[in-house]
Write a structure and sequence with these properties.
alpha/beta, 7-stranded mixed beta sheet, 7 strands
């Protein structure tokens, strides 16, 4: 999340420079700063590919396109090596409006910045694994450039456990709610790891996972559209939810196989966790795994949405990880929603 905020601020600062330049022209000259919006567009594409579309990201993209559009003529003059001796009143006016909007967005990003978990201070180590494949055919490690990443596994464990082989109180397999990415639950992963559990979180973006059946299923769009429809178009979200049980059950089956690939050691205690209306899908996954092999550790199935006083089921501790979305949804203020979720989890898991 730290790099996401830095990327957002970089884009906005460059946009602000592009807009404010109209106040500082003094002599007849070319306008090289007119090329800044193109640079910002390139950074924006890289930002979306890296972090996907989000609520604040959508606002930033809108401002970027708006500034780029109003600077097209200036860019064409620059490419033709024409001299600028003044800016038109309408261009100055629009640039000032853009500048005010950009500065307001900078304030928004800073004020509603998510909580950043410093893994070094918590003595928790995070590892990332990526795979190519589908839920139907299985997954393999990426060996060729043309094999794009369709499965992402994140492992959290205490540094002591990794270095010294400390006691493992259990293995957690966590698939986030379809409306949010895995890092929306990172405060929970870190606290579980500090208590001696090994936590695996997974995200799947394969072509055989159907929520909408079109471009909205792509990694860069899926969580944005699902959260958008859940918020403003419940009827569309309900239709997409009809595929949840099938999608989630198949994800847990493949997730279990991938975890065994990463760590083939015997797992005495296994916990499967997701968030909101997920138990039927997990039960189906357990049944399918037993059909394939009787030699599996029966997992304890947990739905975070059953947590008492959980004010944002299906969104994770949103007040910490996405405070701007929590504001839009009018989620009640809670300085530490992770504490409630951890109390619920530790009780069910029977850990200290």
């Amino acid at each position: 999340m730290f790099y996401k905020i830095i990327s957002e601020l970089l884009i906005l600062v460059l946009l602000a420079i592009s807009c404010i330049r109209v106040l500082f022209i003094r002599n007849t000259r070319q306008d090289p700063i007119a090329s800044v919006p193109i640079i910002v567009m390139v950074i924006l594409v890289a930002y979306i590919l890296a972090f996907s579309v989000s609520t604040i990201g959508f606002i930033i993209a809108f401002l970027t396109f708006f500034v780029f559009f109003w600077n097209l003529r200036a860019l064409m003059r620059l490419s033709a090596h024409l001299i600028i001796d003044h800016y038109s009143p309408i261009f100055i006016f629009i640039s000032m409006i853009n500048f005010v909007l950009v500065m307001g967005c900078i304030a928004l990003v800073i004020f509603y910045r998510p909580m950043f978990v410093n893994l070094k201070k918590t003595n928790v180590e995070k590892q990332s694994f990526s795979y190519y494949g589908t839920l139907t055919d299985g997954f393999e490690t990426i060996k060729e450039i043309r094999q794009y990443k369709t499965a992402f596994i994140y492992r959290y464990a205490s540094k002591k456990q990794n270095d010294e082989g400390g006691s493992n109180k259990g293995t957690v397999l966590f698939i986030p709610n379809e409306c949010v990415p895995a890092d929306a639950y990172e405060p929970i992963f870190v606290e579980l790891a500090q208590k001696g559990l090994t936590v695996y979180a997974a995200e799947f973006y394969t072509k055989d996972i159907k929520w909408f059946g079109d471009y909205r299923d792509l990694k860069i769009f899926r969580t944005f559209f699902l959260s958008l429809y859940r918020f403003i178009k419940p009827s569309v979200f309900h239709i997409a939810q009809m595929n949840k049980s099938d999608n989630l059950s198949r994800e847990f089956v493949r997730f279990s196989e991938l975890v065994d690939m990463i760590d083939s050691s015997n797992k005495e205690k296994v916990f499967w966790i997701s968030d909101y209306n997920c138990i039927p899908a997990m039960e189906l996954a357990v049944k399918n795994l037993k059909k394939a092999s009787n030699d599996i550790t029966k997992p304890t199935l947990i739905d975070l949405a059953q947590t008492p006083a959980y004010t944002s089921p299906g969104w994770g501790p949103i007040q910490q990880t996405n405070p701007f979305l929590a504001f839009l949804m009018k989620v009640p203020d809670d300085p530490n929603p992770t504490k409630k979720l951890m109390l619920f989890l530790t009780t069910i898991m029977n850990i200290d």
